[in-house]
Amino acid sequence: MENGDRVARRVVEYEDGAGHPPSPSPGCPEAADYTLAALTLRPGLPAALSESCSSRLILCYSHHSTVERDCREFIGVPSHKHHKMGSYLEEMKAYFQTHNKHKEYVGHNSKVHTIGWNADGRRLASGSYDKCVTIFLFDGHRETLRKDYTYKGHGDSVDQLCWHPTHSEQLTSASGDKTVRIWDTRTHKCSATINTKGENINITWSPDGQTIAVGNKEDLVSFIDVRTHKIKHENQFKFEVNELCWNNTNDLFYLTNAQSGHGYIHVYNYPEMELVHWIHAHPGNCICIKFEPRGRYFATGSADALVSIWDAQELYCMRTLPRLEWPVRTLSFSHDGQLLASGSEDLTVDIAHVATGEKVAHISIANPTFTLAWHPRHFLLAYACDDKDDRDRDRDAGTVKLWGLGERS
What we know:
409 residues, Methylamine Dehydrogenase, Chain H, four-stranded antiparallel sheet, globular, WD40_repeat_CS
């Protein structure tokens, strides 16, 4: 490691046995300026100097600008010269002090259970108890949504939906009517209907776009071949399955679940679906899971009101967020992976800095949150709550809100 171009080296544990962090490498005065979450590094990658808060890595800084840029792009840390970790946190706090307005859009005749942005951020989809899927078009210049089309066909509540990971015109929805539907926004038609064995409550699309996984109330997970629209295999579980997802490399499949009142994360290799990891994650039911956009870490939300952030490579808990008081229902990472929004039965949405756990902002709401999702390119958060009609409090409102707007929006 010469000429200032040092290579990141892995430290398995503290070697002194006393829990003290390893000393910074000589000649790296910027060590104290960084605090990073646990990172997975490519071999030989030069990186900005830091000690990780996980005590698993030492990263050494190179003054070569190209090396610094490559490192930042990989680990998602702002510019060393202009955006050290602390200043990112302060800048985002200041940003949301002036960008804390929201607009409300009516999309349904009943409560909205699920929302999601497509890959390019030009469309927002919502699914509702009214059995419909609604598409909104996003105007990036005006930062507004416009209702575009409503898809009908489901015979029961639409409880979850998700978009194709790369094809911005395709989405799929899961319903209590025992079907999964695939929709095409170019033709405004349902391109496929897949019959399943139970009332569906969760759904996810694989990163390679070839498979849709859907779970039902009987804890059966079905894997649908997107090309043939056929179920290629099923897995019946003996525990309560709450939410499911793949990792970014498509070779691991995650389930959040509850057993004997405790929350667990089960990790299976894919497509074999053999259990490879089993994590006791929460003292309460583990409800939801969400991966950071680059796949370096994931978050879980639980009935114990805690949000936990996990290193995806080492599968250990990096930190917990304790600010909520009621079960955590929904999570979403910002496009840069540095902010995490958490929604629950609390009358607030918490927005946290992932690297430190500090609160960046919060959204005061009148009713519990069902679902939320950050825009894939902007610091704009869409969310839906258990809202009631202003004129008739016995009637659900069916609204979607967009937060993070400035005064002029």
